[in-house]
Amino acid sequence: MSGDVDWLRKRHPHWNTIRSIGIAEGRREVKGEAQTERRYFISSLPAEAEQFAKAVRAHWGIENSLHYVLDVAFGEDGSRIRKDKGPENAD
C-alpha cells in the first residue's frame, strides 16, 4: 500500500480522487500445486493497510456472490459462447 501517487495523478489528471495504490496477494493450492495471484488496486482511500484490506475483502465478497447468481440463475458457467467461434459471433 502506498500513498505515493503524484506521478499517477500527473499522468492521469482526470483521476483527481486517487489517494493510494495497493496490491493484494492471494495464495491457494490446486491439486497439490501452490498458486499465487496478485491483484492491483487504484484507490481513493488513504494509504492505510487495515482499511485497504477491508475494502478488498468487501469487493471480492460482492464479486463472489454475484458469480453465484450469474452461474445458478443464468447458467453462465454452462454457456459455451466462449468456445470455438462463439466469441466472434457475440458482438
Question: What value does the average pLDDT take?
Answer: 83
Give the number of domains: 1
Q: Could you estimate the helical fraction of the residues in percent?
A: 25-40%
Characterize the biggest β-sheet. Answer: 2 strands, antiparallel
SSE topology string:
HEEHH
Structural class: alpha+beta
Account of the protein in words:
This protein is an alpha+beta fold and 91 residues long. It has one domain (6-82). Helices cover 40% and strands 24% of the residues. It is built from 3 helices and 2 strands. Strands 1-2 form a two-stranded antiparallel ribbon. The radius of gyration is 18 Å and the shape is extended. The mean pLDDT is 83.
Question: Secondary-structure blueprint of this entry?
Answer:
Blueprint: H1 6-11, E1 20-30, E2 33-43, H2 49-74, H3 86-89
Antiparallel strand pairs: 1-2
Summarize the entry for a quick read.
By secondary structure, the protein is an alpha+beta fold.
State the main characteristics.
single chain; 91 residues; alpha+beta; two-stranded antiparallel sheet; 3 helices; 24% strand; extended
